[in-house]
Amino acid sequence: MTAGRFVLPALALLAGLAMFLPARAQDGAPTSLTDLPVRRSVCANRAGPAERIEDCTAAIKQGQPPDRLIEAYRDRAWAYEETTQLEKAIGDLSSAIALMEKQTPQPDFLWETLLDRANLLCRTEHCDRAIPDADRAVSIHAWPGAFDARGHLYLNLDQYERAIADFDQAIRLDPEWINSVVGRGVANYSLGRFDQALEDFDAAIAWNRERAGPTELFYRGLIRSSRGRYAEAIEDFTRTIEWWQNLYAEKIELPVRACPLAEAYYQRGMAKKTMGKDGGGDEDLASATSYRALCDERKLTNR
């Protein structure tokens, strides 16, 4: 590991598109399948995802009118997502979309379902296959979250200029769409435009100083460290570690959090050692090694 380019999987309005970090909701916008508005349901009345899968499966087998069948497939997809059965969730969303496309007029939540599927495709490492869904969603409903979602798909495909174009459009539509400000910062960082990236990260952190997210904090730490501002970088890396160790502990399992924790500990340790700070550097590097082992183990398991 070096202090150079490290790209945390990017934020995404409709669920973290891949990835370690769920997006932060803005103006009531959904951040995952389960955050989308609740509609009348044929099978989502029981609390547990396993029970909902059972109820939805029974409803689908019994046969339902098209609109109710769409609801059943969508509800079961939410439950599959909760239990990390992402391929099955994708299959159900595809069934729902196929039914919607046969309706005239098509349901007004088709664009949501397309973005749901795009999100899950990218989370299963098929971001390239997700772009057509995002294109259709943008054409149906050109709201900031749709451009933001497609921008993060491009970001994960290393198509940084296209990502920036979408983030710019989201910000034009809503200047406080902070997910896109952060995403644009990551894209600019990846292109070596560090001054522009720093402006975006500073803006995102200033917008919500007490709850600034780990992506903008981590990347700002990288830029500060590269410019010899080690004490400030250490502060940013420390806040990043606090996010992953504490604030996400109940939502995200440790093997997933291990990858960004490894990077944050490593960067903080190197900053401490470079500035000659007594104590802490070696401990951070040891923690980085431990978390890196967990991260690597998870990657091997998921192959």
Helix/strand structural class: mainly alpha
Q: What would you report as the Rg, rounded to the nearest angstrom?
A: 20 Å
**Which sheet architecture does the biggest sheet show?**
none
Individual helix count? 13
| Proportion of residues in helical segments | 55-70%
Tell me the overall shape: globular
The portion of residues forming beta strands comes to: under 5%
Q: pLDDT average, as an integer?
A: 84
The separation of the N and C termini measures 22 Å
Element-level helix/strand string: HHHHHHHHHHHHH
Number of E-state strands: 0
Q: Uncertain runs with pLDDT below 50, 5 residues or more?
A: 1-40
- How would you classify the quaternary structure? single chain
